[in-house]
Amino acid sequence: MKRANRLIATATPWILALALAGCASSQAAKTGEHHAGHHPTAEAAATTAAAFDAAPTVGTQARCPVSGETFTVKEDTPRATHAGRHYVFCCAKCKTAFDADPAKFATAQ
Question: What is the value of pTM for the model shown?
């Protein structure tokens, strides 16, 4: 019986650590940290616009000015204008960040 208790005492911290690691990963996903791992290639970033003279139409390839992620504009894509330029965002969280400080993310492209 003592041997079983020792085994449980030894294994418990490892099991707890693994369980918490899994929770941390799922918590990151729940908080919208979905940009992790989204790294556009230098070529894609250089050739995909982040700002437009006119509102981009559905199907246009764009680059989020906040995350740098390239994506296809959809009907429900979040949008904003700043200094006469049109911007589209990969998600609502990026639009919120842009709205808080547009000059930080605005580009002349």
Answer: 0.61
